[in-house]
Amino acid sequence: MQLLSANDMARLDCGDCDGCSACCRGMGQSILLDPYDIYQLQQITGLKFAGLMQEKIELSVEDGLILPSLRMQPETDACGFLDAKGRCSIHSHRPGLCRLFPLGRKYDEKGLHYFLLEDACEIRNRTKVKIRKWLEIPALSQYERFLTIWHDLRGDLQAQIGKRQSDTFAQESNVLFLELFYKRPYDTEEDFYTQFGKRREEFCTSGILAEIS
Ligand code: SF4
Ligand code: SF4
Q: What pLDDT is attached to residue 19?
């Protein structure tokens, strides 16, 4: 697997998807959402977490941790943000995993890397584009730093939940995690990263995380 950085080129450009919406359908609960995604969804829809939960997102469990994901609609098995013409109705604010496709992310001690999911996109003759341009994310370095911190925080908590085998610990840590990073509304007029930093601080100094360290 070739590991790439944001300044590398990769065969990603599928010609604006041209009538294809395959990766917005039948995805189960695989399009997981991070706090930045929720901030973006709040900004574009005006809905808070509870409003999004009505029909656009749902909760699933990954290695003991409860996480939200895009909800495939029961009638169509398509994402609730896919419009009647097969286009993303929230394109400018779409979640990070939607922007990424057909790339994957890999984390190691050097940080975040990208790699091409060779057979993921149905379009075969894709053209090369710089990953940074493909992602269309403002302040990408800051976003990548956030992703790395988020990945580590999630991993640490999942490892603790697995290690402890305690329903009480799993429940209490999930309640706090969901409340702090997802349910508590973000101020969409304010910088996301500042808000995330404060919430992370709150999480890390909570009784739950004191138990973890
Ligand atoms: S599978 Fe490829 S071409 Fe089809 S919607 Fe996804 S990214 Fe676009
Ligand atoms: S948010 Fe947009 S790009 Fe992502 S799965 Fe839904 S319709 Fe597709």
A: 79
* Residue 3 forms part of a structural domain: no
Mean pLDDT, residues 168-191: 96
Cα of 177 vs centre of ligand 2, distance in Å, is 25
- What residue numbers bound the domain in which 160 lies? 9-212
Cα 127 to middle of ligand 1, angstroms: 13
* Structural domains counted in the chain: 1
- What is the C-alpha to C-alpha distance for residues 121 and 109, in angstroms, rounded to an integer? 29
Q: Which residues contact 54 (CB under 8 A, 6 or more apart)?
A: 47
In a domain, 90, yes or no: yes
Using CB distances shorter than 6 Å, the residues near ligand 2 are 24, 31, 70, 79, 81-82, 88, 90, 94-95, 98
Check whether 211 has a pLDDT greater than 80.
no
> Averaged over 77-84, what is the pLDDT?
97
Q: What is the mean pLDDT of residues 25-32?
A: 97
91, part of any domain: yes
Closest CA to 94 of 49, 60, 137: 137
39 assigned to some structural domain: yes
Residue whose CA lies nearest to ligand 2 atom number 8 = 24
pLDDT at 162: 93
CA 20 to ligand 1: nearest atom: 4
Q: What is the pLDDT, as a whole number, of residue 97? A: 97
- Spatial separation of the C-alpha atoms in residues 181 and 200, rounded to whole Å: 8
Q: What is the mean pLDDT of residues 35-57?
A: 97
Nearest partner of 41 among 185, 194, 212, judged by Cα: 185
